[in-house]
Structure formats: structure tokens, C-alpha cells
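I am writing to request your help with a piece of structural work I have in hand. I set the record out below, with my sincere thanks for your time.
___
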Amino acid sequence: MIEFEHVGKRFGERVVIEDLSLRIDDGEFFVLVGPSGSGKSTLLRTVNRLAHVDSGIVRVDGRDVSSVEREALRRGIGYAIQSVGLFPHRTVAENIATVPRLLAWSDADVRARVAELIDLLRLDEPGIADRYPHTLSGGQQQRVGVARALAARPRIVLMDEPFGALDPVTRESLQTRLKAIQRDTGTTILFVTHDMDEAFRLGDRVAVMLDGGLAQVGRPLDLLHRPVDDRVRDFVGGTHARLRELAVRTVGGSMRVGDRADGEPVDAADSLQDALASMLAQRRDRLPVRERGAIVGAIVLGDLVAREP
């Protein structure tokens, strides 16, 4: 669990975070979203003491982080950032193994964990474990950065705009893999982004940060349906909120159970946005829905258009 209690932070005369209190539960994928300068990255960095607070307390598992030795604290918390920061003279395998080596894991355990993460993050190009960062694509480097953050099986991972510089296809692929890994492992992830679509795609809960404070905290649909004020309404989508809702809701929650349809099926776990894209590509207004390999119903365009919050 991560707790912020009346946290304040200044840079000179500029207030970056003001009297902020928040709790992030164990196993939660929690996203901080906001414009540049809203304080979200600074708040994240107070957790592993890359930034210190001027007032208030930050706790991890009930312990004030200021009372924990920096290196010990950081070895127990994964960290991934947009610029990746891989060690250029270490191979992919050596980069991933960095923290397990510091924690004195056995050679066999390190090799097994590196191989597991290479498979999980689909770094499956032959020989990639022995390559150096400069020989990798941007997407591959980012995958290695995520693998390194997860390598020691930390209970908490901090991620600061980790996919911001990637192309849309690579970015979506990594988002999908990260969400699946988090769901399977129960890792607590605190994720920073300025992209509301990314926030809604990943977050169990999302906090909108504006001007150094929490404007609203809630589940994605709560923010879309019940924004607390015009600032939040505008930031989460304004008149385009219904389109954003299609990316949050799943096909399984909107299908007509038992109905039939022609065409290439969509999966029940897909988003309604994915279903709409498939309908447009196939020039159909309804498609079959597949779950665990079996057709279980149909998704209908008219239902997506007519649906009320």
C-alpha cells in the first residue's frame, strides 16, 4: 500500500504539490493523469525518494519512506521511465538482471527470471538476450526497461510516461502486455501519463491532477459519467467522452447473449472501440462475440450508439 498524507512540495517559490492526501491499495493499477506541470511525476518520485517532500508523509506498507535507507527502498520498488535508461555496455540479459544481481540471487534463478521476462514481454527475437541496447528498436528498448523494473518481482512498480515516445501500435501492444502481467501477478503499479486514453485503458482507478492537487479520483467510468467540475469534464473528454467510453467498456458487457451474427468474431474481452473498428472494417452493423473459443452472442452497432450511461 502507498499512502500520501498532506504532502507538499515546492521548487523555489513555485508550489508543485499542495496538501495532497491519497491511498493506493495493494494490487491496484493506479494512474496519475494530468497536463505538464501538474505535479504527477514529482509525486511519483517521492515514493522512491528521487524527490523529497517539504511537508507531509509518504508511506509504503505503513513505513515512512524517509525512515528507510534509500538504496534498500529502491531495490524493493521497480522503476521505469520514458527515456528507459538502459546500461549501454550491458546486454539485454544483463540489464534485466541488474536488481536480482544486487539482491544476490543465484545464477540459476537470475537466468530463469530473465528468460521468463523475455517471454512475457515478447522479446523473442533469436539472440536478443545477448544484444546491446543500441542495436534494439525503441519498442524493444522499452520492453527491456519494463522487464528490468519487474525483474526482482517487486510488490510496487513506479512508471513515469514509459510509453510516451513509442508509435501507437507498439504502445498499445505494451499496454496490453503490462496490464496482463499486472493482473496475473497482483503487482501494485503507480503509473504517470498525460494521455487520458492510456489512463483509462490501464487504470483500475485514475486520479486527475491539476495545479498540484487532486481534482478527482475514481474509476474511469466514474470520471466520464460524473466529473466533479468543468475542468475535469473538459480534461476527460468533454463532448468526446462517449467515444472515450467505448475504449473503457468491454464487448462482453454489452453483447446480446445468445444472438447470432455473420462475420469475423470479436472477443468478449475486447473494448467496444475495438468492436466498432471491426464493424467498420467488415462493413457490418453486428458481429459475433467469441469467449474461450466459442460463439456466445453478438454485438450490435445500434446498441453502442443508443446506450445511456
Remarks:
- The chain has 13 helices and 14 strands.
- The longest strand covers residues 14-24.
- The chain has a mean pLDDT of 91.
